[in-house]
Known about the structure:
Blueprint: E1 6-10, H1 17-28, E2 31-34, H2 36-47, H3 52-57, H4 72-81, H5 85-99, E3 105-109, H6 112-116, E4 122-127, H7 130-143, H8 150-166, E5 179-182, H9 188-203
Parallel strand pairs: 1-3, 1-4, 2-3, 4-5
Helix pairs in contact: 1-9, 2-4, 4-8, 7-8
The structure holds cytidine-5'-diphosphate.
Amino acid sequence: xxxxxxxxxxxxxxxxxxxxxxxxxxxxxxxxxxxxxxxxxxxxxxxxxxxxxxxxxxxxxxxxxxxxxxxxxxxxxxxxxxxxxxxxxxxxxxxxxxxxxxxxxxxxxxxxxxxxxxxxxxxxxxxxxxxxxxxxxxxxxxxxxxxxxxxxxxxxxxxxxxxxxxxxxxxxxxxxxxxxxxxxxxxxxxxxxxxxxxxxxxxx
Length: 204
Ligand code: CDP
């Protein structure tokens, strides 16, 4: 038996995928990859003048450690470059080999359960209303000193949702076999407990 075990976590912007994925990974001792950071890093390179597909092909792990990746300008550019097939193709192998590492892996993003890891042992689709998501993102950004208004954050979240769901290439949607967790009315602890229960059931 191989000890490969992939948990795919997808969902719209600021639904709580990152917090939930980190907690699930810590609970089971799995590795965690925030695949949004790959697209954000490509977006940041494009804002700095590089061509998108070239930026994706030349991505290195230290490109993922840049503080500017959390800004809304980078998030917006990330969702723009994410519609480009060559960009997605250039990031595919890295994500699949991360998923296949021994000891278990949690990957969060938009297309993990549908395209990157269609055979994942567990697929979660984490969502919440746009208003709740914008409130959470607004609080996160304020805490790190980014001064966008709530209305700007809400408009950005809605524009990014539309672009992510309507694109031809790997659109955001729940895999048919995904477990949906709506976190609108859940605390972090409740959302994590629901995810841990789903993963535990699949490991039996
Ligand atoms: O943190 P948040 O949920 O706001 O966004 P993110 O996960 O960092 O992703 C930023 C953008 O990258 C998304 O709006 C998507 O357009 C794109 N993305 C994607 O297309 N596929 C993924 N697997 C992850 C992110």
